[in-house]
Amino acid sequence: MQRIIPETGGMIGRIDVHSHLLPGVDDGCRDLTESIACAKRMVEAGYTHSFCTPHIWPNLDNRPSNIPTRVRTLQQALDKAGVALKLLPGGELHLSERFCQTPVTELMTYNGRGLYALFDFWTQRFPVHFGSCLSYLRQAGIQPILAHPERIEAVQNEPEQLLEWVEQQGLLLQCNLECLGESVLSPRRRLAERWLVEDRYFLLGSDLHNLHGLEVRLQGLKRAIELVGEDKVQELTHTNPVKLIGN
């Protein structure tokens, strides 16, 4: 299934909702050459659009004021190289203790629309400020989406605690294709597969960082289709991602 949304630059197929395509801004693609190579491979895999979601950390210069400009610059390079991937701005927020002190205007949301925000955290237990951060986003009218929960140690230790936030607070989850492409012995893959079959996820994203790690993610896409079928994967890579773009 494809649809046309004018502002995105044409027909939409699969949309990658989590990528570190922007060159040299975080731990993702190192340079423009790698960004172009990754984008080309994603097009070959059936993607027409990708959100650029660089890490939003205090030590990185990634902000709502400069991410869209960097996305446009990379888009120009892709167009010049003949790579038919349309880019959209986004960011991966980090749920630190000072998160609630961040002005709403400085929270990078999908397509800058203030509707959906992707975030992560890296702790062994759920931080005490987890609930208040979710409430902060909600009060700002932003729907929080947790990136790759199956990769987070706190979630691995207390999966039921996360599901309580999902059921009680409406938290949405984004599954990483990388985890679905890992070894069958991987606990991250087992958790991702279980939650995928249980229909716990709102989105599937690659979380691509470089060309070297891209193939395992595309294997994860194939595994997702094997598990739940093309129609369900279409919902997670097209139907729901379209909602992130906004009206």
Brief account:
The protein is an alpha/beta fold and 247 residues long. It has helices at residues 32-44, 67-81, 130-139, 153-157, 159-169, 177-180, 187-197, 214-228, 230-245; strands spanning 3-5, 10-12, 14-16, 47-52, 55-56, 86-89, 92-94, 116-120, 143-147, 172-176, 203-205. It has a single domain (3-245), classed as TIM Barrel.
Features:
single chain, 247 residues, alpha/beta, TIM Barrel, six-stranded parallel beta sheet, 40% helix, 17% strand, disordered N terminus
Task: Explain the overall architecture.
α3 links the parallel β8 and β9 (143-147). This protein has one domain (3-245): TIM Barrel. It contains 9 helices and 11 strands. α1 (32-44) packs across α2 (67-81) and α8 packs across α9 (230-245). 42% of the residues are buried. The strands form 3 sheets. It has a 6-stranded parallel beta sheet. It has a 3-stranded parallel beta sheet with strand order 3-4-6. The chain is globular. It is α/β, with parallel strands linked by helices and 247 residues long.
Q: Which class in CATH terms?
A: Alpha Beta
Q: Low-confidence spans: pLDDT under 50, at least 5 residues?
A: 1-6
Radius of gyration (CA) equals 17 Å
**What sequence of helices (H) and strands (E) makes up the elements?**
EEEHEEHEEEHEHHEHHEHH
Write the layout of secondary structure elements.
Elements: E1 3-5, E2 10-12, E3 14-16, H1 32-44, E4 47-52, E5 55-56, H2 67-81, E6 86-89, E7 92-94, E8 116-120, H3 130-139, E9 143-147, H4 153-157, H5 159-169, E10 172-176, H6 177-180, H7 187-197, E11 203-205, H8 214-228, H9 230-245
Parallel strand pairs: 3-4, 4-6, 5-7, 7-8, 8-9, 9-10, 10-11
Antiparallel strand pairs: 1-2
Helix pairs in contact: 1-2, 8-9
